[in-house]
Amino acid sequence: MNFTLLLERHAAERPDAVAYYDVDQPISYAGLLAESNRIAALLHAQGARSGDRLALWLPNCPAWLATFMACARLGVTVISMNTRFRSREVGDLISRGKCRWLVMWPSFKGLPFRQILADVEPGQLGGLQGVMVVGESDDTDPVPGVTTFHISDSAATDQLANVPSPSDTEYALVYTTSGTTSQSKLVVHDQRTLIRHGHNAARYFGIGRRDAVLLGAPLCGAFGFSSALAGLAVGAPLVSAPILNPEECAMQIRRFGVTHTFANNELLDRILDAGSDQTPPFPTLRVAGFASFAPSLDDLPERAERAGIRLVGLYGSSELQALVAGQSPEASLADRSRAGGCLVATDARVRARCIETDEILPHGEVGEIEIRSPSMMRGYLDNPEATEQAVDKEGYFRTGDLGHTINPQHFIFHARRGDFLRLGGFLVNPLEIETFIEGIEGVANCQVVGVAFGGKTVPVAFVIPEPGHTPKEAQIIARCKAQLAGFKVPQRVAIVDAFPVVESANSNKIQRGKLQEQALALLSAG
Predict the structure, then answer these.
(1) In degrees rounded to 5, what are phi and psi of residue 243?
(2) Can you tell me the mean pLDDT for 330-337?
(3) How many Å apart are CA 171 and CA 330, to the nearest integer?
(4) SS3 breakdown of the chain: % helix, strand, coil, rounded to 5?
(5) Rg for the chain (alpha carbons), in Å?
(6) Looking at CB atoms within 10 Å, which of 30, 56, 89, 345 has the fewest?
(7) How many CA atoms lie within 13 A of 385 on its CB side?
(8) Cβ neighbours of residue 270 closer than 8 Å, sequence gap 6 or more
């Protein structure tokens, strides 16, 4: 099944059923189908064709979902872009993604989208054929020399009459994820895989068409979009807002009878605080899946339990999709609080491999988690070599995470293998930040570590200057703020003569643990 058939089925069976609450404005499934077809006709009239790629740079809103569905109707692949990305990231994704189309909301909440585009290297935007804008617009083209049109523009009603519906194996959506280099990898999924995963997640977490799902993460990422898929697959309403405000989320849970939500533990903690004016705070909320992004909130499951809310630990990735596994809502509190869980697809399998011997380990022993699931990506976009390295011949994805299995479908996550950081709810390779800072004049080397501070993980950079140069902390931070997403910007930058190392027979290894101690001391000193 493809997304067009899915929408047509929901619209035929329940045309007035709500598909999406945008803050408090409902959009029905019939309305979503009509709007997505209208946008598809508009894009097609502008020249969009099957196989094209479109960079979708919007916050959570009906236009995001309708544009995605429009692209699915045409066979256009969506490159999903975070609204917090800045010039370096935006230019890289549009260029490497070979995007012909860009969709953006220039005036959204005063964010400087036009300036961000202006700061992108012109050559990285050379492949763009058109920009579709959402919201208020003016006569200034976001990209000089590239055709600009508005999402509300009209197209001939018969524009799609001779446009065949694409196969469900056509590429549909690309997530970005950190890889083993400074560049993010582009993870591509097809329509069939996305929809099937939505059905599996809905079945496992008990989501039906009479339920309601609060989106606790942006649609641009695997966490938010996988949550949306679970609702869309069965025809349940999605509840969201362009900006995730805890007080507003609490109001929406009560107003729309939200039964399920999936979010990071920091947002859930703040929603719980916002709902403390009544007991129980959210009587309709049956399942709240959470990912532990803020290490200081380990007591959240117990607090939620006392408030009558059942939290369950989750597991996922861009390659496997979020919600690929979760703890059972019927399990004990101790088990539900752990990351990992049962794979939501009944035909999915998990195993642990020994890091030292490369052997498959028996249940209970800790190794690298490998998962085979029907939610698996089609691969890394335009990068078959990286795909081959990530997925073995049996179809198992090497997650890079450590854990142990309980049985072939149930596992417990322990830790990330390597030094990846969870910043602002996103998995970030510190090498990306380090490479950028090393490109600043006067910087010879850089190391970035993450430490728990103020209830969340924050990055701190250590810089060795080039001889004869004296880079300044404020200047480095300012450069990062100008070109990197806010959650990647170091909270502090320490200028040092050398990094702490431990000598071995083969190399001198940087002691990241000592850097973390120094980082915490630096933050604590203000």
Answers:
(1) -125, 130
(2) 94
(3) 36
(4) 30, 30, 40
(5) 23
(6) 30
(7) 2
(8) 246
**Other beta carbons within 10 Å of 235:** 22
Residue of higher predicted confidence among 176 and 181: 176
d(CA 11, CA 161): 19
Note the pLDDT of residue 191: 98
H-run or E-run covering 273: helix 265-274
Torsional sign, CA 69, 268, 369, 399: positive
- pTM of the complete model: 0.86
Identify the weakest region by mean pLDDT among 137-146, 199-208, 441-450: 137-146
Residue with tokens 């692949």: 77
Show Cβ contacts of residue 150 under 8 Å, excluding neighbours closer than 6 positions: 132, 133, 134, 137
Distances (CA, A) of 312 to 63, 185, 192, 264, 337: 31, 29, 27, 11, 6
Question: Any idea which residue has 């990530």 for tokens?
Answer: 390
Ranges 153-167, 177-191, 196-210, 443-457: which has the least confidence: 177-191
Check pLDDT > 50 for residue 322: yes
Task: Please state whether beta strands 349-353 and 340-343 pair in parallel, antiparallel, or not at all (unpaired).
Answer: unpaired
Query: Which residue carries 């190794």 as its tokens?
Result: 367
End-to-end, the C-alpha distance of the chain in Å comes to: 55
DSSP per residue over 213-232, as a string? EEEES-TTSHHHHHHHHHHH
Amino acid at position 273, single letter: D
Provide the token pair at 423.
């910043």
DSSP letter string over 139-187?
SS-SSTTSEEEETT----TTTTTT-PPPPTTSEEEEEEEE-SSSSEEEE
Tokens read off for 283: 């009587």
In the structure encoding, which two tokens stand for residue 509, read together?
């290894």
pLDDT higher than threshold 90 for residue 438: yes
Q: What gap in Å lies between CA 491 and CA 487, rounded to an integer? A: 9
State how far the Cα of 120 lies from the Cα of 55, in Å rounded to an integer: 15
Q: Which residues pair with 372 in a beta bridge?
A: 349
- Domains of the chain, each with CATH number or no CATH: 3-187 (3.40.50.980), 310-418 (2.30.38.10), 421-524 (3.30.300.30)
Kindly report the backbone phi and psi dihedral angles of residue 255, in degrees, each rounded to the nearest multiple of 5, phi listed first: -65, -40
